[in-house]
Amino acid sequence: MTRSFRALMTGGAIAAAVALAAPAAVAQSQPNGGAPLTIQAVTERPSLNLSSYGEVKAKPDMATITFGVVTEAPTAAEAMSRNATQMNQVMAALRRAGIAERDVQTSGLNLSAQYDYVQNEPPKLRGYQASNQVTVIINDLTKVGSTADAVVTAGVNQINGISFGLKDPSAAENQARQIAVRNLQAKASLYAQALGVELGGIRSLSEGGGYAPQPPMPMYARAMSMDSAGGATPVAAGELTVRIDITGVYDLNR
To answer: In order of start, what are the domains of the chain with their CATH numbers?
Structure first.
């Protein structure tokens, strides 16, 4: 092999190595005979896309009860009249229990015809049913059971459920956020160590979840006189879970 041929081969190898190391470039001809346009491909930095969460337990400081009065009568007007009489007694019982007007809200008002069904015969009108549902917020958890007993004694014959909540969940949410970020950072460091690379800065962070009021749970109460054995209906508030979910994207340094 001649010296000039070896030099040509060496120069070609160096050029090829430089081409592999540099970003890929593609030349495209411009329309109308313009100068070629060079498009340079840029490789994106490797990254980690991870999710984590933080949870804290909190004691509830409020309760919400939904209950109602259901009455039946031969006519619609009589059913509504009976219902109004019982509901007025219930509202008076709530005031005596110390429940403010702003914490009582009508959540349902219904009137429906009631039929008797016999096989091979047309439905026969039996009467009408009126229903008035209210949702009550109780800010003193020590009065939940006694309030339920008071409204049942006053005329409530339907209790749909009870839920517990937080008047201000911000402190619990912020604590859960801090735990979520620490968990996410620890997970990212673990992945980087396992991959044998250096963890870079965080590129983005998004949040989901947060405090949501507890859905109503069934609650069963029965009317009882205050001098009967057992006292007020027992109600246990327990604890609430406040959870924050986050997702973060971290850069990886090679």
So the answer is: 3-40 (no CATH), 62-167 (3.30.70.2970)
pTM for the full predicted model: 0.68
b/e per residue, 54-71, with b = 16+ CB within 10 A?
A: bbbebebebbbbbbbbbb
Backbone angles phi, psi at 196, to 5 degrees: 75, 30
Helices (H), the chain: 3-21, 76-96, 144-154, 170-195
104 in helix, strand or coil?
Answer: strand
Give tens-digit pLDDT for 16-57.
333 333 444 445 555 555 555 555 555 678 999 999 999 999
Rounded to a whole number of angstroms, the CA Rg of the chain reads: 36
* Lookup result for tokens 């800010």: 139
Strand, coil or helix: what is 90?
A: helix
Q: What is the pLDDT of residues 66-107, one digit of tens each?
A: 999 999 999 999 999 999 999 999 999 999 999 999 999 999
The SS3 call for residue 217 is: strand
